[in-house]
Amino acid sequence: MSAGVVDIGYVELFAASALMLVAGIVSYKLELGQTRRIAVSVVRCFVQLLAAGFVLEYLFAWQTWWLVLLALVFMISAATQIATSRVKSEVKGLIPAVFVSLFVSSVAVGLIVVEGVIHADPWYNARQLVPIAGMIIGNAMSAIAVAIDRLFSDLDSRSDEMFTLVALGATAREAAFPSIKAAIAAGMTPVLATMSAAGIVTIPGMMSGQLLAGADPLAAAKYQIVVMLMLSAANTIAIVMACFLTYRKRFAADGYYLDKGIRE
Amino acid sequence: MTLFRAEGLTVSFSRAGERAVLFENAALSLEEAAVYDLVGPSGSGKSTLLRACARMIERDGGALYLNGAPSDAVALTKWRRQVCLVPQKPSLVSGTVRDNLVLPWTLKVHAGERPPSDSELANLLDRAALGDVELGRDVSQLSGGQLARVALLRAFATKPPVLLLDEVDAALDPDSARAIGRLTRLLVGESMTCLRIRHRAADGFAAGTFELKDGALSYRENPSQAAIGGSAPGRTGSARQSAPVAAGREGGLR
Predict the structure, then answer these.
(1) Which of A111, A164, B67, B140 is deepest in the core (most CB within 10 A)?
(2) What sign has the CA pseudo-torsion A8, A14, A15, A16?
């Protein structure tokens, strides 16, 4: 097996976009109304990934700790926006809590892996830190979106029960706790399911990338195991933080549940 | 002896950008060992008045006293443990009758207190004519009347000095509603007081009736219960409504 990445020419790259014609034709024939969305997605995929390629090329060449930090903050900001937009319930003021949850989980776990497992040099080496942080942030973003969506739909469906609990003397946290537990469990489910299926049903993204780049399969598997454990830890930190930082949005300062009728 | 007193209670809320006063300067006084009715048209703010007494809604003004001590001196959860509001819907948690009856003792506010034993709970069920309901029975197997009584017993079991009942008999047939009234009167005993919202005809268990109408709270003693007592410093209860509003459970507030 030859080592190194097979570079794809721009002609082949644009030719590959013809594959999206399948989705376009299906949408057109079945009148799904998705044609425009498919076109926009293809363009976004091209622009965003090529832009990321250029930015990373610059970042790898000119890396300083503050440039790497800036890149991480940008990624986390985008993830925060996407995660909060996926929450179906109307909840104001989620953004700061989600940002902090993503920042703490991705930076803490990312640094532990880069410094403690991969032994990157320097510790802020963008070639290792950025892709690893990207994986963590992307996964944590989805987990937070699932958890917060579940948290608020559960809180709203338990409004009568929480009213009773508060009337019996419960604190807001005690009243909300069953919903917090359900939300954390829901947020943890996807990564645990992926871990169970890894290697049997799917070859996960990072391992696939390394295999395509010509890496030794066992080395790629070890790398992937670390990634899975890292994602699980970061997701847990992110969703626990996000749930505990946001559930109070449905409670008044005096600890009672704010029904829809009395929310400002 | 006066157990609970409210003075100058005012609650307003915003609707379509304007502040609307639901009731203003409402005052009431509840004597121990007595049951009181709170009546009034739908949307007059009865449920909100109970919430204000339990400190479960923002007040624009007014003071609350329990045994003469002002509410500000008492932590919120402790206040609600002593001035306990039972909502209209008998919201029980999934599990058994026992799980629900001892639920309050899973809360921090009861930390260090011994939950009632099975025999004490069985005795409580007996008094509520629920002797045939086992403690281990799943609450999903209870009828509407039984659910309402278990929810009421759960609040009674904590022995709050003040019990606020928000139309707990609304969804029940007349016989079950009367059973709830009798149970309330029986359990209030000598050291508690109870204010209950009712839409039904008087059942003879209340010492007096407060009426909330057009933002004004008035009081009348029930002749048949005059011996039980019930003073009415709240009969002044001057109030006005700055705009036609509807709130309370009927209007979206609880």
Answers:
(1) A164
(2) positive
Pinpoint the alpha helices (H) of chain B.
46-53, 76-82, 97-101, 118-127, 144-157, 174-188
Instruction: Name the residue in chain A with its Cα closest to that of B59.
Output: A254
Neighbours of A250 (CB within 10 A): 22
- Chain A residues with CB-CB distance to B139 below 8 A: none
Cβ contacts of residue B152 below 8 Å, gap of 6+? B86, B90, B128, B165, B168, B180, B183, B184
CA nearest neighbour of B30 among B58, B50, B59, B10: B50
Contact B56 A161 (CB under 8 A): no
Of A166, A171, A264, nearest to B56 by CB-CB distance is A166
Mutation target to probe the A interface, by most A beta carbons within 10 A, among B72, B91, B109 is B91
Q: Count other Cβ atoms within 10 Å, centred on residue A254.
A: 14
Do the Cβ atoms of A163 and B14 come within 8 Å?
Answer: no
CA atoms within 13 A on the CB side of A213: 9
pLDDT in tens, chain A (264 residues): 445 666 778 888 888 888 888 888 898 889 888 888 888 988 988 899 999 999 989 888 888 889 989 999 999 999 999 999 988 888 888 999 999 999 999 999 988 888 888 888 888 888 888 888 998 999 999 999 999 999 999 999 999 999 999 999 999 999 999 999 999 999 999 888 888 888 887 778 778 888 888 889 998 898 888 888 888 999 999 999 999 999 999 999 989 888 876 665
> Do A164 and B91 lie within an 8 Å CB cutoff?
yes
Which structure tokens are listed for A188? 């943890």
A258 touches chain B (CB under 8 A): no
Complex ipTM value: 0.84
Residues in A closer than 8 angstroms to B103, CB to CB, are: 165, 168
pTM tops 0.90, yes or no: no
